[in-house]
Structure formats: structure tokens, C-alpha cells
Amino acid sequence: MIYEFLFKYPAETFEAGRLVLASTWPIGILWSLLTVATLVLAAVLISRRSRMAMPRVATVWALQTSVIALVLLLLWQPSLEVERLKSRANSVAVLLDRSRSMSLPERDGSRLGVAIEAIKRDLLPQLEHAYDLRLYGFDGALESIESIDTLSATGENSAVTGVLTQVLDELKSVPLGALVLVSDGADNASPPESLLDLADYGIPIHTVGVGPERMANDLELSAVDLPVTALPGSRITARVAVRHSGGGETVLKVYSAEALVAARPITLPIAAGVHVEEVELDVGEAGIRDLRFSLEPLEGELLLGNNTRRALVEVPSRRYRVLYLEGEPRWEFKFVRRALEGDASLELVTWLRTTQRKSYRQGVRSEDELAEGFPDDRKALFAYDALIMGSIGAPNFSPSQHALIRDFVGDRGGSLLLLAGRESLGDGGWDVTAVSDALPAKLRRGRDATYVGTEANVRLTRAGQASLICRLDADPERNRALWAELPAIGDFQSLGALKPGAVTLVEALVEGRAQPLLVSQHYGRGQAAILATASTWRWRMHLPADDVRHQQFWRQLVRSLASAAPDPLQLNLATQGRQANIEVAVRTSEHIPVNDARVRVVVTPQSGPAREIEMHRSAGDDGNYVGYFIPDANENYRVDAEAEVEGVSLGAATRHFRYAMGASEDFDAAQNAGLLRDIASRTGGAYWTLDRLGELPSAISFSAAGVTERELLSLWNMPAVFMLLLLLKSGEWLLRRRWGAV
Amino acid sequence: MALARSVLLVVGLALAASLPADGPLPPEEVDLSLFNFARVEYDSTGGWGEAYYAYDGRVWQRWQTDFPEADENFSFRLQQLTAILAKQKATSRRLTDPDLFDFPFIYMSDVGWMDLTAEEQAALREYLARGGFLWVDDFWGQGEWRNFERAMRQILPDRRWRRIPDSHPILQTVFDLPSAPQVPARSFASPYGTSYEPAGLHRRPVGSLEQVNFRGYFDTHGRLMVVATHNTDIGDGWEREAYGQWYFETFSTKSYAVGVNIIVYALTH
After folding, report:
1. Measured between CB atoms, does A352 come within 8 Å of chain B?
2. N or C terminus: which one in chain A shows less Cβ crowding within 10 Å?
């Protein structure tokens, strides 16, 4: 107010305007007069200075020159040239957010209620007077309204930038001066690129933020991350992110069909932020697990809708095929078979060399399977999901079979596990084959055998402690102890240098030195692992009959390896706002991408008829087909996909997912001031709060969009000018009096 | 009569004391990267001719029958005929030895008078429950079978022996055998005689010795965990392979074949 008193106009007027001299007299005359006046004044003061020192003379000269210059400037009519929207010639659109997050309580009512009151008091009267006012309510969609009083905060989602784009497109043919967006900034339904397009319209968007920028005393389960699928009887890890405003205690509970399956107390750090916790769950038998994750509310917590999230985990009843090749009958073979037998998720096929010329097959589906030994074509080998190789040397295979094993991992995405043995790894000549490309270690081979009979205890590495493969107990301390108490292994094979991508899960303490025992790495689409011992059978024979550690370890290891292998047909789902995106990757049985498949996708809602979704090739992605659909309701959906080429089936896949439209409104409840400021700055508008809403109409008037008129605002009669003149003159008089010149 | 028996016993013991005797081998470190053929040491009831006997210039305890030559010959042949690397030196253990569980395969011979303590029974029960495999060989007649079966009823009270059919995979793991062979001890084998031993050497009641009984105890998954070759002496076929070409060709080859099959079965099931 003081500013406006001194300078006649508000600060934004000077920001929007340009200083000009309104007089028609040439500016050259002003400079000439000023120069002459300056010189004459200097001559007069010097000639009359008497005993006054030159610096003082110069000071007086400067003050008198300033007065003359100011007077001369005033004669040339200094003015502020501004462009304003021409009254009654422009439209201004006001968009008010009516999504469910606007129903959250504020001190004097809901966010929407408080916003409506402020708009009606401070904004609309001034805008209605000068512009053609267009009112809109929006959530995920835009709606033109007659009055903001009719709005209620019930929208299931918010598409802030999306609706801005929409209204700008709609009003293209109208002289639009500005947009005003009143919202808490929660945007969970707009296409991601819509923000970037807003500046191109050239219309300033003023954003008004509603709601606190930080929620106090609120917990939010901001994310739950867990596998989409899991094997029956397996254990999975769910990572949950908890957004909090400070320290506190809560309990994370996990329900499956309303039965409590896990509970984990959480102590939140003092500093506000996002805290991540992990909880382990047993998925049980085959089927669909509809899981509900829930945080116990803090005392006095008001917003409870963001304390719960749901997720689906599919537990398919399929069996993964594992081929185990062994070069010599030995105890490890027997006890690994025993450990994996009876696992409903695994189909173990074994080929054992019993004599130089004889083999013994178990678990084969037909007499022909492996009758000729190890497969020598992709189709036969790629039918397996995992390959375990024991003490069988590289010379027993052809070079093309070596390459086939490597491609099994790299191309097919299968998993390879090598066990120790006198004909394994370096001692078996594998270091000089194509298989070595896939392995996590640069195998050693020298004069001395790398495979030795020696006792060694084992222990988990840090990575092993975090890995579900090595999880013998959910409690980390107990798990560590269970591993430490295992009987010593009775043999070991040294590996050589590990490759950069290798991860060691278990170490063996061989002659006091820690050596990698279980190590793996990703290679191409698959992974390869080495278990540098063949005597884990001692974990069976040296522990009581009811101890399950040996079986548990082997089942977890092989399940992890086998289930990581992709199927020839893969179906992936991802929701983006209201849209569910579908991607189908199609490969042959030799895992070669297929670009001319006929892909059929059918979506079946929990309550409703099934419908087919149009799919088309994804450009640039071999073998990938994409499509999408818009779910109608919050419920579970089943998606079935199948592919064929020339009548030959390439496979089928089924996925389930849960659509929860509207649940997003409960989350990220704090005002997204960052987005609102970004929109304003990109478009030439400004960010406002409700308490400053009265200043917005003035700012809108300076918009460069729409129909504008130029206005010259005179500055000569600014109180600040008179005060400056008075100050200069009185200052000169006081100095001269002090110096005895008056 | 009683006096005569006592005199005979005293004389017999005096003679036995003067004859050389073998016992268990000194314990040595086990190489777990090899297959170890481990024989079980046990005590037997009775006296001379029951718990002990003299033969071939030495005194034998029942558990030692054919030991160590049979075990070492078989280990050599096992390595020769298969891809298995076997320890060549014979090994023996008591059921209560702490490192018994380093030998997932154990062999017993001549169990007709076997007498296990409660501790040994419990140890064998736990051994089998963990996945261990037992082969019992070289015992003949009803009396010796009953003694063995009585012991097994203490060890596996919820299991009963079953006949192993000729079609069972154990007879086809490496060699295709029509049935379990009958192998007499070398001293009773003759090209003109029978393949079974005389009844007088065995525990009464003897019954018929003509038929080989290939029997076993199965676990809950249908896997053999105890195999009994009754009315046959497979071990002697190994021990006496060098004692004559006819015996080697007629019986040792069969002994090795069934032995290889049983070992490979134990290593694959």
C-alpha cells in the first residue's frame, strides 16, 4: 500500500509496463538543455564559491543539477506505457478443481468450500465487471458450469494439465486473456506430455494453490512394490514406502481375503520424508492373492484413505521344467533330486552318466526325451526353464552344444547352474568354451585341480542376507544363525576372478579365507550361477530328519532360477491414469521374436461381459504388440492373450490386475505447489494463494494475450517525485547553511 | 553231555586264541569327494559257530564276513565299470559312530545272529530317516531271516518288508538283470552242485535255501531304503573273484552286476 501511495500504481504495473516520455518535443532538446544548465550552474558556483572548498562546491552543484534534471524530465512527461486487456473485449476462464482431494478439511471448511468463498469474494466480482467470464469445474474431465456454487468435490481423479490443454483448445477462437486455475495441484490422470504443450498456446495461466504444502500428522502408504507373480508355496518380499510428517509408531498389516497374513511394527524417523520397509509373505497355493496393505493411523490422524493400498499377486499352477545333467553318480545328485521331488512348481528331468557309454534318465515325459543325450537344437533345449550341470566336462559336448548352452541363457532367458566336481568348471575345460561368456567367474585352470575334498563352513554375504534364495527364516538374525549352524561342506572348487556383474550370496571359509560359494550374474535375458561345492548333501545327512534347511535352500534356489525364465509369450500390464496399457511379447519356441503374429487379447471384468482389445505391432520393438483399454469400474480384471501364426499357436498367457480409479485422490494429499508454480512460470502467469486473490484481477489485466489496448499512465504527479524534489532542495539548503554559504 | 559241551567250548576258545584274528581297520580321514563303501560293525549273540567262527586260517566275527577283500574288490570294480570314483580302501563303522552320516550307503553281512543295542537301533532309524541306504547281504534260512526281521521291527516299527519284484528299477539301473542272482560262497560252489549253501552252517530253523529272497523296506515315497539279499552271498562273489575262472565267470560277474545296480540305485533315489 505504501508502494502504491508513493508511486501511484502497484508494482506489477511497473513490471508489466515500459517507461516512456510522452512529450512530443525531441529528446535531444532535453539533453541539450540539461547540458547547458549543468555547465552554466557549474560556472556560476565556481565564480561565486568565495571560501567554499571545491568538494563542497561540487556537492552543491550535484544537488542543484539533480533538481534541474528532474524538473526538465517532468516537462517531457514521463509515463508508464502498459498494455492491458481491453475491457469487455476478452474472455477469462476460471477452472475450479472438484476432485475428491478438494473435499479434504481445512480450518474453515473443505478445500473446495474455502476456495469458492474466496473466489466469490475477491475474484469474480472484479472479473465479471471487465471480462466475459467462463467458469469450469474439472476432475478427470472438464465441464462448463454456470455457477461455482453447484460444485462438489466428488471427482475420482484429477487431470490438471490435461484439462488446461482441453480448455485452451476449446477457446482457441475466442479472445482469451488468461486462465485461472484453482486447485490443490494433484494430477494423477493427465498425459505426461500435456505440461510441455501449455506454453505453446501463449495464454498466461495463473494458478491458485489450495491446501497445505505439507500434511501434518498424516501417514501415507505411498507405494507397495511386490512381484506380480510367485510360485505356489513360495515366499515373496513386499517393499512399502511410508510418507510421514515426523516420528511416530505404526503397524503395517497385510490381509489376504480379510485374513491377517503379516504384521510389522514400524518406527518412523523424526525427520519427515519417505520411509521404506520390507515385509515377507507366504503366497500359499495356486490362485489369485488379493492383498490389502494397511497402516494403523496415528493418533488424531484425519486423512485415513491414504493408509491403505491393495495389490494382486498371481500364483500360477504351472510347473517349471528343470534339466539336471550329471556326469557321475554321486550323493549330491541323489539329495538334490530328493530335495526337489514333491515340489509342485518344479518338474525335474535328470540325465546321469552311469558308465562311459550308459546313461540313466529320470523324470522324462517320454521314451524319446534325452534318448540321444543332451539336446543339440534350440527347440529341444529351450523347452526347459533351467539347466543344472554337475560333474560333466566340456569334451562331452560339441562346440555347437557349448554355444547352445550359452544361448539358452542369453537368448532364451533360461537359468544355468553349474555345480562343483572333478569334471566341472575349469577342471572340466569349460573355461575355453562359449559357456564361459555367461558365467559369473573367469574360471581357473592350472596344473593343480581346482576341485578339492576339504571341510569348510559357510556363511551368508550381505547380498545373501537380503536374498530370498537364502531365506531360511524371516527374522534376519535367526536366518544368519541357521546358516552359521549348518554342517560343514566336504568339498570345494575355486572359481577364479569374479566378473563385475557377479553377486556372491554365500561364502565358504576355506582354510580361514572367505571364498565365493554361491555366485550368480545376469547374462543377456537370463542368468548363470555357480555353486562351488557338491556336498550340500551333508546339510541333509548331518541334521535331524525333520530339519528342512537342505530342502528349503534347494527349492528356493531352483525355483528362483526357473521362474525367472520368460515364456515364449509374455503378457504385461500397466495402468496409467484411467488407461490400462497392454503389451504382449511374442516369440517362437526357439525364442525368436515374431513380427507377423495374430494376437488376440480378451479382457474380462469381475462383473461384466468380456471384450476383445485391438492390438497392433509396437514400432521398433521386435515381437511386441500393444493395446489399451479404459476400465469402467473399480474391480479385478482378467486379461487373456494368445498368439498364432498361420494357424499354429505360439502360446497363451493370463494376467489379473486390480483397477482402483479414485484411490489416487486419497494420496499425495498435500498441495502440489511445485506443479502449480511450474504451470504458471511456463505460461507467463503467476502462482497465487487464496489470501492474495484480490490482487489477481489487476495482474490479469496486464496479460499480453487477447485483445489489448495501450495505455499511458502519467508519472509526473507521483508523490515520490515531489518528495524527491523536496528532499534535494532541502538537502542543498541544509548543507549550504552548515557550510556558512547561506 | 553238558560236561562234554563245556570241554569243547574251552578247547575251542583256546584254539581260537591261538589263531590270527582280524578286527576293524584303524579309522582314517574320509574323502567326501569319493564314494565310500562302508561296512557296519555290530555284535552278535552266541558263541563259537554263532557270534564267531574260524575259516581260512582266521577267526571271524559275523560282521567281518568277506571283509575287507570283498569290499575292496567291489570298490575297484565299481570304479572300473561305472563313472563312479570310489575309495579303494575298505571302511567300517559302528552305527553309533559320529561320522556315520558321512556314509549315505552302508553294508551289512551275515546278520543271522546280529544283536543291536537300543542305541544302535535308534541310530539306524535316524540314519534311514535322513536318506541313508542300507544293504544287508549273505544270510540264509528262516532262522537268520527272523533274527534280522526282528531287529528291523524295532528299527522301523511302522514298516514291513516287501518283496522286490524282478521288474523293479533297481535291477535295471546299469545292467539289465532278470532277477537277483543266487551266489554261494566259494567253498560251496561247484559246477556239479547247487547254487545254494548247505543248511548245516546256518541258524535253525533253516527251512529252504533254494530260493533267493530279494526283499526291501520302502519309504513313504516308495523309494527303497533297505535292500536285503537273503539266501545268497553276493559279497563272496566279490571276495573270491580271483579264486578260479569258473567261479568268477559264473558268480562274480553276477555279484558285481547286482552290486553296481544297487549302488547306482542308492545314488539316484
Report:
1. yes
2. N
Q: Do A355 and B174 touch (CB under 8 A)?
A: yes
Instruction: From residue A79, give the alpha-carbon distance in Å to each of A6, A23, A197, A703.
Output: 15, 9, 37, 19
B219 Cβ under 8 Å from any chain A Cβ: no
**CATH number, position A517:** 3.40.50.880
Residues A360, A296 within the same domain: no
Smallest CA–CA distance, residue B201 to chain A, in Å, is 38
Q: Are A639 and A573 in contact (CB under 8 A)?
A: yes
* Same domain, yes or no: A325 and A255: no
Mutation test of the interface with chain A: which of B28, B29, B31, B33, choosing the one with the most A Cβ atoms within 10 A? Answer: B33
Q: Is B262 helix (H, G, I), strand (E, B) or coil?
A: helix
* Length of chain A measured in residues: 742
Same domain, A546 and A466: yes
Residues counted in chain B: 269
In DSSP notation, A14-77 reads HHH-EEEE---S-HHHHHHHHHHHHHHHHHHHHHT-TT--HHHHHHHHHHHHHHHHHHHHHHT-
Domain boundary among A282, A317, A352: A317
> In this complex, do A491 and B173 lie within 8 Å of one another by their Cβ atoms?
no
When scoring B32, B124, B125 by the number of chain A Cβ atoms within 10 A, the one with the most, hence best to mutate, is B32
Whole-complex ipTM? 0.91
Beta-bridged to residue A352, according to DSSP, are A326, A360
> Which phi and psi (to 5°) does residue B93 adopt?
-150, 150
Q: Select from B93, B267, B269 the residue whose CB has the most chain A CBs within 10 Å, as the one to mutate to test that interface.
A: B267
Print the domain residue range for A242.
Answer: 219-317
How far B131 CA sits from the closest chain A CA (Å)?
Answer: 7
Q: Which residues of A315-346 are buried (b: 16+ CB within 10 A; e: fewer)?
A: bbeebbbbbbbbbbbbbbbbbbbbbbeebebb
Among A606, A634, A664, give the residue marking a domain's end.
Answer: A664
A-proximal residues of B, 197-216, CB under 8 Å:
none
pLDDT at A734: 92
A154 and A127, same domain (yes or no): yes
Q: Are residues A659 and A676 in the same domain?
A: no
In a shared domain, residues A437 and A515: yes
Among residues A198, A178, A203, the alpha carbon closest in space to that of A92 is found at A178
From chain A, the residues in CB contact with B84 under 8 A are 328-330
A634 and A702 share one domain = no
Cα A611 to Cα A600, A614, A652, B164: the distances in Å are: 11, 10, 17, 59
**What CATH number corresponds to the domain at position A604?**
2.60.40.10
Do A332 and A395 share a domain, yes or no?
Answer: yes
Which of B227, B233, B211, B210 is CA-nearest to residue B148? B227
Question: Cell numbers of B110, please?
Answer: 551275515
Q: Is the pLDDT of residue B3 over 70?
A: no
Q: Among all residues of chain A, which has the CA nearest to that of B267?
A: A334
Residue A334 has its nearest CB partner, among B101, B174, B269, at: B269
Q: What pLDDT, on the 0 to 100 scale, is given for residue B19?
A: 46
- Give the C-alpha distances (Å, rounded to integers) separating A416 from A41, A229, A345, A405, A739: 98, 21, 18, 8, 100
Q: Burial-class residue A546 by CB neighbours within 10 Å (0-12, 13-18, 19+).
A: exposed
Question: Using the beta-carbon criterion (under 8 Å), do B83 and A353 form an inter-chain contact?
Answer: yes
Whether B27 shows a pLDDT value over 70: the answer reads: no
Set of chain A residues whose Cβ sits within 8 Å of the Cβ of B82? 329, 354-355
pLDDT at B25: 61
Does B83 sit within 8 Å of A329, measured CB to CB?
A: yes
- The answer to whether residues A176 and A91 touch, using CB atoms and an 8 Å cutoff, is yes
CA A550 centroid distance within chain: 39
The predicted structure's pLDDT at residue A544:
97
Segments in chain A below pLDDT 70: 188-194, 661-665, 742
Neighboring chain B residues of A545 at a CB cutoff of 8 Å: 126, 129-130
Total number of domains in chain A:
5
